[in-house]
Amino acid sequence: MGTYTPQHFFYKPRLGARGYPQKNLFDLSLDKVDARLAQETWVGDPRFPWAADPAQRLQNAIAGLDTTPALLRLPPETYVICQAYTVPANITMVLERGAVFLLENDATLTLDGGAAAGPYQIFAGEGNVTFGRPVEIFSEWWGEPAWSTPEGNIAAPVGSRYVKTAGTPPLYYLKNSGVGATGWQAIGAEGGGGGGAVNFTELYDTPAAYTGQAGKVVRVNASGNALEFGYPDHTHANQAQLDVINQNLCPASSPAFAGLTINGNITVSGTVDGVDVSGHAASTSNPHGVTKTQVGLGNVTNNAQVKKIATSVNGNLLVWSGTTGDTVADSGKKPADFATATHNHDTVYAPLAKGVTNGDAHDHAGGDGAQIDHVNLANKGSNTHAQIDTHLSSTANPHSVNKTQVGLGNVTNDAQLKRAAGDINSFAEKTSPAAADMLLLEDSAASYAKKKVRIGNLPSGGGGSTTFTGLSDTPGSFAGQALKLARVNAAATALEFTDKHFDVPTANNTCTPLVRISGTAGENLSQWDLVYLNADGKYYKANAASSATAPGLALATAAVSANYTGNFMLLGLLRNDSQSWTMGAPLYLAATAGGLTQTAPTGDSIVQIVGMALTSTIAWINPQFSFAGWFF
Domain residues for 26? Predict the structure, then answer.
């Protein structure tokens, strides 16, 4: 086998190597280099018109790029900008040491796509620079020593960082608001001092834990608003569209079916588990056995209710008497009967002779002995009306209510910290916290009891990192990691960079697919059966003895019964400890159904290479479609 270069871009075949597997690995490495170089363009690239003036060469390069994101590198030269000029947002300028923009006549250079350079000068002249996206800037870009905060002529947008290189370690300032010299906040040395997380999993837009995620990569989720763990997706153009799906669910031991999205309505007819779906939907006979308690009438008895007549006669009042039945009836009396000074307390309005000194009939004028006598009122008490009025109007806690009775028994008689918005913002600010300063917090390990903590005892000296590489569970540098993926390490404790999408399988009868599909088996299949795709859309055992059962397309990764759905590996590694393959020798489609062999079939059989043995038990599977015996 050949080897890869240290950065894993180029594959170097061994001396005398031949065959499609070696060629494919070499071609893949060329594609990786080509894809990487395609993301960067140099000013002066022969694809663009040549000009003696460096500034014109720069404009020619920008005009020659399309709207896709690109890095435009500027070699060491002076690029004179004598009038307002804007670089589009899809282009990020990368200036090598010695490349300088000379801004003449107070010209303004707008870099909507931002710029990147080290702590060396890249701007000169009297003009201004405007950045259209957050950038990391250095005072050295303007040939200046380290500023305390950036100068006012730098229109850096919110989110930009200024690196003060003087001192060890460098200090960082974050642009929170405003323009020019306003809105810059010191965030301390790299790795903390100003807030943020300490671990990748503590960020707001990242997964909360590494548990169960070993081997997965970090990718942006489908909503485009956060990161998630998962396997790299591979999209293939030659996929069949499913117009009708008629398949049985697999047993519990079979792989789960996922990834099907149905847009539109689903119409169900017939029965589901023996129940007539359409009849159930139209039923009005309480098919779910709903009870009176479930509808909020649990206390109502199943008895006749008091009936109500619809209206009264001539505006009379309605009354009910338990002695006359269950019907609310017309009283024969009108509301106006109460308005007269003298009225009769007969059985319509009240019981007879209850507290009335002059019989049922009396007036409310007083002085004639026909007024109501309050002596006969029950439970009248011993307090006068004046005493009752005084008690009702009292605000001096006449009932001696204490703080425990109102639910504040634990509150001390001290000034309290209010919780209204902006209260903390009203306090005086300490701009340079010391290690001995105290913060108030709730201890999550002690039922969130209130505790104090010294700033000097906080992780990383008082705050988290503002960069990915500054976290404690991420790689410490991007250097040498171009185009690599970040994935959870094998110990499932942190992230690491890798250029491998998969690893060599370490257990018997396992595989690490690079490309895997799911489909329906046309017959009973065993694990590692080589299958072909039939015209009916199902997978059957491939056989080199006939062109009708070839070519082999993929391997069944597990046993699957006929008409059940299973997974099939088109490209990847497998391990089968029952084999004794010859290392470095190809694997062929066998002349027996579903089989693999290292002996090329003879006669009229198809000779199809489907992979190569890397060890006696591990094979690289990559079916080829050019054959020695037959050609398609």
Answer: 3-37
